[in-house]
Specification:
Aminopeptidase; 5 helices; about 160 residues; alpha+beta
């Protein structure tokens, strides 16, 4: 990582900034195909400081912040899920860097550390998501060895007037 850039484990002092970045992530995603539903289904619930704060002390979760010259410009979250087989799967649920700070290595450094966290649990793999209209995120993950393993198909419906 170039001088001035770093990543580290998040602390409770970072929760306000993580909340700001999470709100930016949800706003940005809402403009992308699939993003509105993602924001109300998969994204963490508000208040963000509480949602992310509840993860800080969990051993099966890693929350990182990425910074440039000590200014936090991104964050990432990985969680370990235990499969029915007893094996572990890493899930990168959040990885966001402010648009002005992209393409200089902060996101890559966060990803490398999140992957290392997952390896430390012996995960059989790591999942991460990209919205269907988000080519930059898809390319970012593919550039780091990720491939699609599932596609979620969705169809919007009209509200039914016959529901009780």
């Amino acid at each position: 990582m170039p001088p001035g850039e770093s990543s580290r484990a998040a602390t409770s002092d970072d929760l306000g900034r993580i909340a700001d970045l999470a709100a930016q992530l949800v706003r940005e995603a809402s403009a992308i195909k699939g993003g509105t539903l993602w924001g109300i289904r998969e994204a963490r619930a508000e208040p963000y400081e509480q949602s992310y704060g509840s993860l800080l002390d969990r051993e099966d979760t890693c929350i990182l912040v990425g910074s440039i010259d000590d200014v936090v410009v991104g964050f990432g979250v990985a969680e370990i899920q235990t499969l029915r087989t007893g094996q572990a799967l890493g899930v990168i649920s959040d990885l966001y860097v402010e648009p002005e700070a992209r393409a200089i290595g902060v996101g890559e450094e966060l990803l490398v550390e999140l992957l290392e966290f997952c390896r430390s649990f012996g995960c059989i793999g790591v999942d991460a998501s990209a919205l269907p209209g988000d080519r930059m995120t898809k390319n970012f993950f593919e550039g780091h060895g990720f491939t699609a393993r599932a596609l979620v198909m969705h169809r919007a419906t009209e509200p039914s007037s016959t529901r009780a």
